[in-house]
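thread from #wetlab-drylab

HS: before we spend reagent money on co-crystallization trials with S-adenosyl-L-homocysteine, can we at least see a predicted complex? here's what I'd submit
DV: go for it
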Amino acid sequence: MPQFVSDEEVKEQGFFMKRVCAVTHMFDHVPLAYTHSYGCQQNVSDGEKINGMLYRMGYDFTDDPEKADFILYNTCAVRENAENRVFGNLGALKHLKNRNPNLIIAVCGCMVQQQHIADRIKKTFPFVDLVFGTHVLHKFPEHLYSIFAEGKRVYSLPESEGVICEGIPVKRDSKFKASVPIMYGCNNFCTYCIVPYVRGRERSRNPEEIISEVSGLIEKGYKEILLLGQNVNSYDGNGVDFKELLKKLDNLEGEFKISFMTSHPKDCSFELIDTIAESRHISWHLHLPVQSGSNRILKLMNRHYDIEHYLSLVEYARKRIPELQLTTDIIVGFPGETYEDFCETLELMKKVKYDSAFTFIYSKREGTKAAEMDDPISEEEKGKWFRELLEVQGKSGEEAYKKYEGKVLRVLCEGKGRTDESLYTGKSRQNIIVDFNGDEQHIGKFVDVKITKVLNWALVGEIIQ
Ligand code: SAH
Ligand code: SF4
Ligand code: F3S
């Protein structure tokens, strides 16, 4: 059973929000917060909760850190460059703190859940007032209050398997697209990955909470719901599995789209594919990270599937959902990977012809199993392989989209064009980017677009009435 934060504890945080609000009301201006979330959608979703709490505590928001009374970085630890960026940005805040000693600077998220990083921040960035880990997100109001009340730095990084906290206020970035976490944490311990160490054990929200949140969002006019989990296929909410949850959500009335990420191939079932194929609202999009085309490397990565199984899923999904968009994640240069292993990844890419792929060079993460493995290939060599992979993928992306030329796709309009500022943009049921000749009033609505031009990462078309 996952550990739920009790109603009393949630109420207590409500009192802390009121107390902070009493403090911010005494300011001679409405205090402004600048917050930035790095990393994956889960982190961005946490960022919306942080903003929800800040809003309740009397803060408004700014895009300019120079104008802020409160600055927060919600960090990601998945690769070294993500961490380096945060260290760089933190360093640059020193002059703001010198100029305004009342400025409060906070760092939270996956990166600081690692003790060695929290220690480095403590030592190197004395102007950081608040550091809190992923397991105490809900205690943010209490921590902020102690800074105002006691004027001391606060470090809160408890060890924990992780909790579920319902009822945290959320300030959503969009009026028509909403992220809804269905589970937290991860139990898979892929050998390269830091996530299970910084996000705790896998735990699922109760299906009733999810269904009531999603139906509330649809009533409010939300048109796209993104269900989140590190491995949504192992969702287990009191015996309700992921495909059952999807079916319940698909039964809700209205015009909306349901997407989800991420699907781990080891737990992706043929029944899940059937559920998507037979649904009214679920996107024709499967993000199925393969990581490598070599069975030897998949074993070293602890992924628990082989390429033969993976290909059988791809074949079935494409048969059942003819317009499926298939995307993936690939890691190049895992410790011990040889050029022959890498060539198997290239072969797989050529065979599967992904619509698009997120490709990463392996980054060593302290504390993971892979960090102990021999890694003889130079970064320069890995860079060469990486470019080779991009070239192969570039070709297959364009080929994959050619089939849409002349077709009509239903698109949820999101805003200004991505290929051209004079156009508007959105995503189709396949979650493919489509630019078209819309206008302001289309934003947040579905429109039918006839595709006239195909690029390797987007489609361009014209609205049909
Ligand atoms: N839970 C998701 C992915 C989470 S991280 C899943 O299992 O697919 C997103 C992606 O980052 C991963 O799919 C992987 O391709 C990449 N990644 C994770 N750790 C990495 C590392 N140490 N180096 C390089 N890429 C990594
Ligand atoms: Fe990381 Fe693997 Fe868990 Fe994904 S499934 S978060 S890659 S350990
Ligand atoms: Fe990064 Fe944490 Fe997500 S490590 S990818 S922000 S779960």
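DV: The radius of gyration is 23 Å.
HS: ok that's useful, forwarding to the group
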